[in-house]
Write a structure and sequence with these properties.
- The protein is 39% helix and 26% strand.
- It has a single domain (3-95, 163-246), classed as Rossmann fold (3-Layer(aba) Sandwich), CATH 3.40.50.
- The chain starts with a helix and ends with a helix.
- The chain has helices spanning 3-10, 51-58, 80-86, 102-112, 117-130, 146-158, 176-189, 202-208, 233-246, and strands spanning 11-22, 25-36, 40-44, 66-71, 74-75, 87-90, 164-168, 194-198, 211-216, 219-225.
- 39% of the residues are buried.
- It is globular.
- The chain is of the alpha/beta class.
Amino acid sequence: MSSTQEVSAEVMIESRGLSKFYGEFAATRDVSFQVPRGQVCAFLGPNGAGKSTTMKMLTGFLSPSSGEAMIAGFNIADNRLAASEKLGYLPENGPLYVEMTPESLLRYMGEVRGLQGAALAERMDWVSGKCSLAEVWRKPISKLSRGFRQRVGMAHALLHDPEVLILDEPTSGLDPNQVQGVRDLILELSKNKTILLSTHILQEVRAVCSRVVLINNGRVVFDGDTSELGASEVEMETAFREKTLMSA
């Protein structure tokens, strides 16, 4: 195997100059970063900075105006199916089929991905337990709270046991106990998965992420170890404000 192939195999998420324009407005401009295998990387920025737009381009839900998105070495534009097999995506406030139950939704989604029989049953049991869905397993999603809907979305992202997870505000709408459960789950998953995590909660970043990519006004303004932003949450908040105000 060539050195280029070796590097490609180890870079599991790559944004290559991703830009998205709406007329003259630039939602993102030349966003570039890499996330290697096994890393949990925080993707931070103020509201409207371009985080969700970048994540949608990385997952193929939005076409870039320029640049490339790579998942596990596959160009998302050219190899969408191959990339999607490696990818689990939790969008912020992602749509769900609200007339279905968590059980029926996950069974349907698993079958769409080619899971059947015992393999599907095993994965459904696993995500139900990890996402604490037992008490609402056969309840219509339309009747579920925002927090439970978020957990159904997480279960969907994990169902096919992907190598790469892209999570947009995974603890949104959860109570403190549920938030801690998600953090514990992310730490457990980080042992064998690569994770890009968007959040506004700096305590969450300190708890689960080893690296931070900070975006503001559609551009990357910081890319480094979490410790480089500060040794405490207060220091991180100060650094966050300084770097986003400086680049405003």
